[in-house]
Structures are given as structure tokens and as C-alpha cells.
Amino acid sequence: MPLKGRLGLETARIPHADRHGLMWLERGRLAVEAGNLVFTTAGFYDVEAGAYDIPFQQVSNLLLGPGTVISHDALRLLARQQTGVLAVGSRGVRLYAASMPFGPDRAKRARKHAELWADEDTRVDIARHMYAIRMGGELPKYHRDLDSLRGMEGSRMKKVYQNLANQHGINWDGRRYDRHAPDSDDAINKAINHASTAMYAAARVAVAITGAVPQLGFIHESSGHAFALDIADMMRSTVTLPIAFRATKQHNQRGRTNIEATTRKLAGRTLHKDDIIPTMIDHIKEVLDVDDRSRNA
Length: 297
Known about the structure:
This protein is 47% helix and 13% strand. It is α/β, with parallel strands linked by helices. Strands 1-5-4-3-7 form a five-stranded mixed β-sheet. Strands 2-6-8-9 form a four-stranded mixed β-sheet, sandwiched between helices. Strand 8 (84-88) and strand 9 (95-98) form a beta hairpin. Helix 3 packs parallel to helix 4 and helix 5 (187-210) crosses helix 9 (276-288). The radius of gyration is 21 Å and the shape is flat.
């Protein structure tokens, strides 16, 4: 197969976010040829079939989607260059495996994360900042405990659910989920579950890439990926729920479609088109890369 050219950060048609140095690869083989990292693909998204040089020196992380095979030599070359590798679902709707975080001084952000989490005052400050981003503005200064913040968010989310239901013509009887019988829910609740799973996976990708500490959540606590849940929830009303309601509308209009497949495809397109993972990375940097100035948000 002829060499199609160099998939550089400025000219590549491979989906990626320039400012974060991410590159997405699917349906092909990543290997070393004559000292160069080459990706030979059958084609995906808007990338034509062919063989491409990968400028791995300029890429912080490679996200390998379905149908991708990577050679040992390629892993060795990427490790030497400190380029991360993550195995993901199509367009990032799942995270299956991640290399150790690579990059200059990756421990710096993890140490800062631990410091912010360990202090009770700064932990609440970070939680307030996250809620402020979710709600689109500053919070009243007297709300200094998580129960009050959760109460405010709960009231707001009831309105968000109902507004989205009205907008998309969906019958909304409330949020419910039976862990012991997940298939017993109606279409919209199933769609919310599947959209949430996709966004949670995207958040795990963002957390892995930034070198934050997955277990140290500021709002969620018990999960081993509590911080990813925090990050995913920051986009619940603006991304996750709109995906679910749009998917349910498509499902109802077309009839007999698989609500999981419909939701996952829509979630994948949204993650790619709207640069959701780069946005999550920006959120992580915003809440963790802080100086000693007090937080009023």
C-alpha cells in the first residue's frame, strides 16, 4: 500500500485536539517501518485507506479505537518518546486500557490533586468550583457543605430534565434506575444510562491523560474513579442529557431501534464533533492547576 503522507498535527485529517496533542486511530496497524512510526489503515471517519507516517514526537497521547493493532516495536518507540497510549471505544465512548501517564513531571499535578483533596477547606472549595461550572455561575457564599450543594443541584436538574423532555417531545416520569433489572426501564432512562456510561468513559480518558488521581473525587467518594465521575457530571446537563433525549427521540421516530446502539453512536459523534475530551481536560486543569489565591466561586 503506498505511503499516503505524514499525518501531522496541522494537516492530519485524523480526529484530534491540537492544543492537547491527542491523535485518534482506528481500523489499522501501528508499527515501526525503517525507524518511522507508520499507521496503515483501512480508513475511518474522514481518513482514507492508506499508510501514514505518525509524528509521534508532537503527540502527547494516541487513542486507539476498534480494529487497531499495535506492534511491540511501536510501543517501545512511544515509551521512549514518552507518548501515552490508550485503548478506547469508537470516538472515545469506552476506555479499555491506558499506559502509564507519560510526559514531563506528571507527578506535579497528582501531588497538587492530593494536596487539594487532603485539606477539608480546599476540598470544599474545589467542589464549589465544580458546581459553579455546572450551574454556569457563582454560588451563594453560605453554601459551604456538600449536602447544600447537592440540594441546589438536585432542584436545578429536575428543571433540566423537564425542559429537555418538553423540547424533544418525550414523556418524562422521573429519573429511575433498577440495578437489579436495568432492562426494565423505559427508553429515556435507558438512554440516560448509556449516555452517562459514554461520558464517564470520556472522563476517564481525560483523567488518565492529565495524570490526575482517579480515586480522589471532590464530590463523589466511594468509586475507584471518583474524580472521573466528578468531571463527567460537570457536563451532565449540557452534553450527557441532551444526547440521551435526542437518542430517545430518534428511537421513538424510527421504531424498533436498539436504544443502546442509537445512544452510543450519537454519543460518539458528539464526543468527536464537540471536542468533549479536550474540554474535560481543560476543566481538570482549571480545577487542579491553581495557585494560592482564595476561591470565591
